[in-house]
Design brief:
- The chain is built from four helices and four strands.
- The chain has 139 residues and is α+β, with helices and mostly antiparallel strands.
- The protein has a four-stranded mixed β-sheet, with no helix packed on it.
- α2 packs across α3.
Length: 139
């Protein structure tokens, strides 16, 4: 299963790079659109590049692929927050960086939204807040 998913992801990445599945989309009436492929074809594991009559361009992705992209963005954002937070806390000279990071991550989790995402925060101010609320962790 994992191999098949990885294969499908590679097919999607290749289709995004190659831009082979190109179609024009024309509005017929209220709920109908005409989709005419000028290059490639409709494939479930690949991206489609659509251009409307006004010259606007759109990319259609398989739903699962978009979900994976969004999850990767979320994971990258969280990793970036943790790295920046580590640097800021280290600059504040804690007694034990790992203990302080554990407290900081615990406090950071309180900001997690209902949708599972962490908001953009000012990491420098957040580290200062940790220092003020937990002075025993710092020199």
């Amino acid at each position: 299963m994992a191999r098949q998913t990885k294969c499908n992801q590679q097919i999607l990445v290749n289709s995004l790079q190659d831009a082979n599945n190109v179609a024009y989309i024309a509005h017929l009436d209220t709920n109908k659109w005409l989709l005419e492929f000028v290059n490639g074809e409709l494939k479930k594991d690949e991206a489609w590049f659509l251009k409307n009559q006004d010259g606007e361009e759109f990319i259609v992705l398989p739903q699962q692929s978009l979900r994976v992209i969004l999850e990767n963005l979320q994971r990258s954002h969280e990793e970036k927050l943790h790295i920046l937070l580590r640097y800021e806390i280290r600059d504040l000279m804690p007694h034990d960086l790992e203990d302080t990071m554990a407290v900081a991550i615990y406090e950071l989790e309180k900001y997690r939204r209902d949708d599972g995402n962490l908001p953009m925060i000012n990491v420098k101010e957040f580290a200062q807040k940790i220092r003020l609320n937990h002075p025993n962790l710092f020199r």
